[in-house]
Structure prediction request, 269 residues.
Amino acid sequence: MTTVDVTRKIRRSAVVAGLGLALQLAAALHWTPATFILSAAIGLPLVIAGGAMFLAAVWRNMRDKGAL
Amino acid sequence: MLPLQLIVALVCGLAIVALLFWGAKLLAGQTIGRVVLLVGVVALPLLLSVGNISYGIHQSSTTAFCLSCHEMRSYGKSLFADSRQALAAVHYQNRLVDRETVCYSCHKDYAMFGDVTAKLNGLRHVWAHYVAGVPKKIALYRPYPNSNCLHCHDDMRRFVEGAAHRPILGALYAGTTSCLSCHRSAHDMAKVEAGDLWQAQ
Prediction:
């Protein structure tokens, strides 16, 4: 995996995590039972997915470089 | 709207993630940069989300949250019913339960999974409010359990030594006789409809 690939994947993970945070921010600004559920059911999983994508990208990069 | 501190924290988290998006190329090439990315893209958003959701769960137990659905407004008014018999009014007006969480105090089941059950029931309420439609007559999912009353009244002297309670204490503890078989009025909706409300001076 090249540096360009890793950077692209890290950016992608940042976008996903950022979307999760943005959704939670929107819900916090307009706080209703429905937006709270959206925040918990979509916002939090997006943040977790972003983190997982980041860790997967770093792990693959380290594996390819024989650093594991 | 949630507290300003929480909103500021979310905005800062979002700004940090955006900064790291633009600086990813530079940071990915250095060890310290990769640690910064790990903290900024994984740890910080996760920490903020957990804080946000746990605050939201706490907020979802408040009286204001329950009454934010219009179907519950009349039940909210029943807390102010000018009644010395209706349970909701008596408990609220005499501060027998925390006014901030009055609905939750009486309508959540206690014991190990009481909170979880209450939150799952809350999801059913939200589903009914937005999707399935609210039934014409709002009713509990199951008969009101004595254990909810006994959570507070269990060994209360006035309860244990009450002349009406003493002969049936065993049945009340066993749940074979409902507290509501004598204390019939939980929410005095007739007084709400009549506008007969009490307000502290």
Observations:
- Chain B has two domains: 4-59, 63-194.
- Residues 31-59 of chain B form the longest helix (29 residues).
